[in-house]
Amino acid sequence: MIVAIYCELTGAILRVTDCPEDHVEMQCGEHEDYVEVEAGFDDAAHYVDLADGQIKPKQHRDAQVAVEGLTATITGLEPGTLLAMDGQQMVTTSDSAQLDADVPGTYQIQLVGPAWRLDETLEVAIDG
């Protein structure tokens, strides 16, 4: 039996495993549950909608980046989005966030979560 193990608090699919049916519940930890999936299931592109328990495709976000000086401002985010750039990490508490660079250059900004959004990497040129 192939199952996707997901977090009951967020709907994020944590892993996919193949095991005998009578061992499935042993694969789940605290605050985890499972749903049966087909072989080849793409867990990175899906999440479990906690409102109805259904697996759904993750959605693209409409994040925008504006640069002023050595600061990149990202808008169009959801609270709880993890941002990472050049060793800096932060979790957003609103729909925007600012990241500062030490020197001009081209940077990659990783956007992770929430569970129903596709993870993305934005490339931004910071000219200073």
Structure at a glance:
The protein is mainly β and 128 residues long.
Task: List the main descriptive attributes of the protein structure presented here.
128 residues, mainly beta, 2 domains, three-stranded antiparallel sheet, 12 strands, elongated
Description:
- This protein has about 130 residues and is mainly β.
- The protein folds into two domains: about 1-55, no CATH class; about 65-125, Immunoglobulin-like, CATH 2.60.40.
- The protein is built from no helices and twelve strands.
- It has a four-stranded antiparallel beta sheet, with no helix packed on it. Strands 2-1-3 form a three-stranded antiparallel beta sheet, with no helix packed on it. It has a three-stranded antiparallel beta sheet with strand order 6-7-10, with no helix packed on it.
- It starts with a strand and ends with a strand.
Largest sheet: 4 strands, antiparallel
Order of helices and strands: EEEEEEEEEEEE
Rg over CA atoms:
18 Å
Strand tally is: 12
Strand order of the largest sheet: 9-8-11-12
Subunit arrangement of the protein: single chain
Q: What structural category do the secondary elements indicate?
A: mainly beta
Strand content: over 45%
State the end-to-end CA separation: 54 Å
Broad CATH class of the largest domain: Mainly Beta
How confident overall, as mean pLDDT?
95
List the helices and strands and how they pair.
Elements: E1 2-7, E2 13-18, E3 32-36, E4 46-49, E5 54-57, E6 64-68, E7 71-75, E8 82-85, E9 88-91, E10 96-100, E11 105-112, E12 120-126
Antiparallel strand pairs: 1-2, 1-3, 4-5, 6-7, 7-10, 8-9, 8-11, 11-12
